[in-house]
Structure formats: C-alpha cells, structure tokens
Amino acid sequence: MKLFSSKRFGVLFGVILISMMLAACGNSGSTGSTTTTTPTKPGQGCKKVGVLLPETASSARWDSKDKPLLTDGIKTALGADTQVDYNNAGGDATVQQTQAQAALTKGDCILIVAASDSASAGVIVTQAKAKNVPVIAYDRLIQSKDLAYYVSFDNEKVGQLQGQYVSDHYKDYTKTNKNIVLINGSKTDNNALLFNKGAESLIKPLVDAGSLTSVYDQYTPNWDNDKARVEMDAALTANGNKVAVAYVANDGMANSVIASLRTKQLNGKVLVTGQDATVAGIHNILLGDQSMTVYKDISKEAKSTIDLVKAISAGTDTASLTNGATVKTSDGTAIPSILETPVAVDKANIAATVIADGFVTKSDVCAGIPAGTNTGGVCS
Questions:
Q1: Among the residues of the chain, which ranges form H helices?
Q2: pTM score
Q3: Which residues have C-beta within 8 Å of that of residue 267, sequence separation ≥ 6?
C-alpha cells in the first residue's frame, strides 16, 4: 500500500512539474509579447495622432498654414502609414471637447491641441491622461497640471513688440489728441492675456505719464473680427472720433478696425497694430492703413511640435528639444516648453522678412495696391 502510494505520488508530482514548466513557457511568451506591444512611456510607438485646432474666423493661419504643416509633417516624420485625424472647433470649446473624445475613441495616442478655451481644454488633457495619451498644447497654453508639453512663441514678447512700436511711433499720431484704444483678443485664450501683459508693460508708462490717454480697453470674445469693428465704432462714437492709437491684438481684428476708421476717413491717420503677418495685414501696411504686425514663423512652431511627436513615438528623450525651458500653468505647474521668437514687421522690413521667407508672396500682398502708392519699394 505504501509502495503504491509512493508511485502514485511520483506520477502526480511529475504531471504537476511538467504542467508548471509548460505554463512558465506560456507566460514567458506572453510577457515578451506584452513588452513589445505595450509602450513603456505615454505615446511610445504611436502612429495615430490627433490634431485639434481652435477656429478659422479670427485668423487665416489655422487652416491655411498650421493644418498642412502639421498633418503633412507628422506623416513625413512617422511614416506613410501614420494616421493624422484633423479637426477644427470653429471657436466652440464644447465642440473641441467632443472632437477630442472622438479622437481618443478612435485610438489616437498623441494629441496636439490648440485650445479654443485654455481652461476648458483642461478636460481634454484629463481624459487623455486616463488613456495614457500625452497632450501637446500647440500655440495656446492649456491650464492643466497634466499637460505633457507646450509649443508656442514667446507671447509676452509679442505684446512687447506691439507696445514698443506704439512707444516708438505714437508721437507721429498725437498732434490733435492723445487717445489710445485697446482691442484685445479673447479672454479665454491665455495668449491674449500674455499679449496684453506685454503691450501694457510699455503702454501703461505712457498713459501714467500723460503722453497717452486710455479711453477704451476691451477683450474680444472668440477673437471675433465683426465684434472688433463694433468695439471700434463704439470707441469712436464715445470720443467724438478722436483716437490717435488703436492697439489691436491681431491682423484679423485690425482689418475690421481699419474698416471702422475708413467710414470716418481716419484710416492711415491712426496708429494701428496687429499680429500674424497675414496677407491682409501686410496689404494694409503697404496701403498705410495699418502700422505694424508681428511675424510668427509658424513653420518653426509646427516643426518643433513634429519633432516632439517623433521623439514621443520613438520613446526617446525630449530634453534636448525643450532645452530646460518651462512655462507655468495657473496652478504653478512648470510645463516643458519650446518657445519660438516673434519679429516685429512694418513697411521697412516686409521684403526682408515675410516675403524673403516665403511666408507671404509679393503678388498676394501687392494685389490691388494703387499705382503710385508708397510701399517702400515692396510692390515696385
């Protein structure tokens, strides 16, 4: 009986031992498979990228420049089999959240988001993090401590360039009055706050000294160009058409402000700032109706973003790309950042900047300029 039990135990032990060995082999194969298919870092191995831009109404840049630069560039960087899902929110933060949810549902594993609303877009970052998807805030900072990266321009510097132009040239426009109107961008866009901060750092001292008188200062919801014209109409009416300087945050709104000034035969007689170096903005400068714009080479912003996407997908270190630069969100979180340098442009350097770089073409900006107009040699 004891011998039978010993034999039986030996057979049973052998069966158990073989089963354990087979299971171990099976687990080893499974572990190897998991290691190769599951990324060790958020976004690693990603070939499906979501690009979400904010709107089209305020500036032509988003669809005409940012979209092709990003979508084509990402495919070139990650390979022809890469899927890029593009969406534009049309100025609606709720729509952008829905677009982000759809992108995540489709399996997009890196998101590039130019926020329609800097605060509301924080929800997008939270949802993406839950799926191990990194978010790159493009052009506009998103207020979230979980944001992976931020790529933009030095936006306070943009405002400083606008303010510096006012400081350098306001005396040419204040012969009959000292009134300055400030028409800012959308308050829900963190960039608009930075533009205003930079501009005010140079304009406020002039106001405090009595060199200029601030008579109107408004943020413009959604960077709405039509609203900007209504605002300028109101400022002119309230001040008997006496305005010397119009600080306007971008070219789209500046074009509307100029339309308002034109109805009072004041175009060309008021210093008007802008931003984005759009075809319309450069055209207005050549006509003499707009004084300056700020050139932001979007190709550099897009390239830096694409470089980040490529590094994230490859699982490689991004420290050399951000180079230690950070920008803080409203809660004080330092976000690894890449900030490109903006350039002030007026009639004197149009040819050497935006035309030389191919950002706009001479034929486009000179179209419709009357013969004999002083364009500083640009359209001759």
A1: 2-37, 61, 67-78, 93-105, 122-130, 155-169, 190-208, 225-238, 251-262, 279-287, 298-314, 319-322, 362-366
A2: 0.85
A3: 258, 261, 289
* Joined tokens for residue 118: 């800097």
Q: How far apart are CA 142 and CA 136, in angstroms?
A: 9
Tokens of 94: 């709720």
Grouping H, G, I as helix, E, B as strand and the rest as coil, residue 315 is coil
Hey, what domains does the chain have and what are their CATH numbers? 48-153+297-341 (3.40.50.2300), 155-275 (3.40.50.2300)
Q: At what angle do helices 298-314 and 67-78 cross, to 10 degrees?
A: 30
Strand-strand pairing, 334-340 and 326-328: antiparallel
Residues 172-231 pLDDT 10s: 999 999 999 999 999 999 999 999 999 999 999 999 999 999 999 999 999 999 999 999
Nearest to 188 by CA among 94, 70, 66: 94
Cβ atoms 257, 289 nearer than 8 A:
no
Phi, psi of 72 (to 5 degrees): -70, -40
Counting every residue written for the chain, the total comes to 380
Per-residue pLDDT, averaged over 260-273, amounts to 98
Count CB atoms within 10 A of the CB of residue 152: 24
List 246's β-bridge partners, or say none.
181, 272
d(CA 296, CA 137): 17
